[in-house]
User: Fold this.
Amino acid sequence: MSDASGGIAVGSLLLALLGGAMRVSTPFLFVSLGECITEKSGRINLGLEGTLVFGAMSGYGVAYLTGSPWLGILAAGGSGLLLGVMHGLLCSLPRVNDIAVGIAMMLFGTGLAFFLGKPLIQPVAPTLPSLILGGWSSNTQIQEALRINVLLPIGIALAFALRWAFVHTRWGLALRLVGDNAAAARALGYPVVPVRIVATAVGGFLAGIGGAFLSLYYPGSWNEGLSSGQGLMAVALVIFARWDPVRCALAALLFGAAGALGPALQSQGITSGYYLFNAAPYVLTLILMSMSWSSGRSLAGAPGELSLVNR
Amino acid sequence: MTDSKYNPDRRKVIRLIGGAGAAAAVQMLPFGAGLARAAEKFTVGVIYVGSRDDFGYNQSHAQAAAYIKKLPGIEVVEEERVPETIDVEKTMEAMINEDGAQMIFATSFGYFNPYVLKMAKKYPNVRFAHCGGLWSKGMPTNIGSFFGYIDECEYLSGIAAAATSKSKKLGFVAAKPIPQVLRNINAFLLGARSVDPKATVSVIFTGDWSLPVKEAEAANSLIDQGVDVLTCHVDSPKVVIETAERRGIYSCGFHVNQASLAPKGYLTGAEWEWKTPYVILVDNAESGKPMINFLRGGLKEGFVKTSAFGPAVSPATRKISMAVKAKMLQDEFIIFKGPLKDNTGKTVIASGVALSQQNPVLESMNYLVDGVIGQI
Assistant:
């Protein structure tokens, strides 16, 4: 530190964290909501990291070719949907483990995205517009923190809608029943396998949109290092959120803020230990996981059919 | 988690398939024809740590590789996204044994120690050209280290940045605190202070060469703190330059020309011209002269160049910058001269000492000069 202000400007730091949460959390949010739906049906899709990267690539490609970022979002969701269907179908074969298929899908999704995405690194695609909610303030930092993408409010609204739908709608009930007790669902006449395939497909759709956010809004370009494990962290986040969409949204915002901690502190001149601060989201994952897995109250709220759960 | 962890080893697969295919093909050729043809070609392997068209460091090397590929008698084999781990060793061995590479350009800093050193001992007849490493006596003589004094361009960028800035707060998004990066940050600051003694440079280290989300976050945090000119030293400056343009501030490029990404705010930039050392080293190898173990050059030697000025740079600023550049081209300009203090107050270059560009002391720089806000 040299001639910068001596202490930490706490207000400015909090604003930076808020800004970070607004900017960085959307991919976490969409992937975790998608994974939440999939896991509610009794399956885990670890391949969402691959779906995220593939969504980022296809969204960028389509936005570049058509000139419309919204078509890009749609394409990303569509390609995520296809990858989800693929996972769903593969897992429906006898004696196929969903976690193993998920890892395979992760490699497949990222590999294919890198392969097809080669010619897309150079071109500049149109990015998504942002909502300016901070116009009332003269402070540019507040204005920037509150310049958000429309996908974020959509995602948060979706989280509340999902929480409501899981409990109050017929398909929500069917989904939970299939995930909690396949035998009971079968006895009641619910088609277990099709419900799971649809749940995985919808999960893939949302994860694809999360990827498109990365390439079309923030940071807003396609390259091979775009995702630093956001897809995987989002899967962990679902477990932390105990399969509750609203808690998923909160956890996503928390992770976004944690990701902003390192750069925010450094920009204020607090640079010792920046490796540690940069690792904050990952450390947070570990801490939250160990907290939520502590013996005694482990896996409260976990769908009974999930392969994580001992039966 | 990095992507490379679950990126399957492509070369291994290719080696398995290609090895079998090549063996069969050679057997089908008339006796000796395969070998005779191989002797005419000089095969050069080029290894990149990232993607060849990343708008940055790897692209600057790929441009040079594309240039030497067109030279008669030269064959180029390339591999992208090779991590700075034992993987690069495997890649080098595969290039030597399967592709018959007689010369390897290992372009990433972290390839040098221990991987290139180890391979150079194992294959004394192959030439290893490494970008950025510091070759010293006692190391295998079939290694050549080449690099460009890009800090000259950074100094010129610093001039344009400080002269154009309103807040006089400049920002630098850096990957890792290695000597080359620190030298660039310091040169940028010294250039800035040459036109405005009150200018500061705030640094954020992201921790790795390619972390787009973190780079965007770093750029935004710096802009939030009032920085109005950004530059960077990461593998692909695309994200930083685009973020700066989107937020309506100025930027200076790095590695290659990024003016097309920021038509309004792009001031100038520091670019590599790797084809100069590539041609020197390949010519040298083809004519059988001993390997040049230590090859360096700056603006004067044509190893680096500056981007054309953007519209925001005033004619007066252009004049200052061009005058300094002219001196550099004459070898009459010294960037690092005493008395110089680091940002903890310690004297790093004593009064009266002038370190010319060629001085190897500069290549082990481990400090940030006074005026840089940040810590290694």
Notes: Chain B has two domains: 3-16+40-148+274-297, 151-271+304-332. Chain B touches chain A through 53 residues (CB under 8 Å). Chain B is about 40% helix and 20% strand.
